[in-house]
Design brief:
The protein is of the alpha+beta class. It contains seven helices and ten strands. The protein has helices spanning about 5-20, 75-85, 100-105, 115-120, 135-140, 165-185, 195-210, and strands at about 30-35, 40, 55-60, 65, 90-95, 110, 125, 125-130, 150-155, 160.
Length: about 210
Amino acid sequence: MNEARVREEIARACARMAARGWVANHDGNVSARVAPNRFLCTPTATAKEVVQADGLVVTDASGKQTGGRGKAFSEYGLHLAVYRARADVGAVVHAHPPFATGLGVSGRELVSFLPEAVVSLGVRIPLVPLAMPGAPALAAAEPFFAKFDAVLVAGNGVFAWGDDVEQAYLRLELVEHLATIAARAAAWGGPHPLPQDMIEKLLEARRKAFPGRA
């Protein structure tokens, strides 16, 4: 894996999230696995629009810092738990996109009502219950890691993961896209659910593309 390229992808993802208004102040974070025991993450207390490729924190799989300036963010343990649960995951992205975050703080999960979204993300993007930061938040989220590729977190935006930074970012983007459409459709009674026979065929395609996912 080309670490220099991954560093640039992380910086670019941070800039894209900031430009789209998905983060404010020091919100959001991005991490990536670049070797079995080498991880990169965005530094804490840093606005995402100023994150630079050479300013990332380097840690081992336990979270011990081995390089870089600054310190890892407080939610880094959740990212590392995703990597432990999913050998296929190469990157995790977290942000507070307004529509998807709005669903989460309203106590609602997101149901996939577009066929393409079922293949990409499954029938639903579940809601992780509200919990205090640290061990309680990790315990609340861990049951969702194996089967899902994105989750809403009550009171804490969206987490998405993927093979690499780009895929994780695009999954986050799709979650917000779905949430935005659902909010707009509410004026006409809300999006209609997909027929069950269509869902079964779409899930079959998802299982072929992403074995083991819900």
